[in-house]
Known about the structure:
Blueprint: E1 2-11, H1 16-26, E2 30-38, E3 43-52, H2 56-63, E4 69-72
Antiparallel strand pairs: 1-3, 1-4, 2-3
Amino acid sequence: MENYQLMIKAYDRPGSLERILRVIRHRGGKIKTMNMQVESTQQLSVNFELVDSRVKEQLANQLIKLADIVTVN
Length: 73
């Protein structure tokens, strides 16, 4: 299992956070910590500390496919 952090910027739309969490759940990731802040009227920032058996890049590649996502680091 690998521990890593993801910093996600996304559009603040209804259901955005739920869609992000769903991708993490489907990919088998376990969230250790989560911190979300609304940065502006249109964007939010979510920082995750995750435990996952897969590499970070695989999850990041799945998340960036969501229409809500601006950046994943």
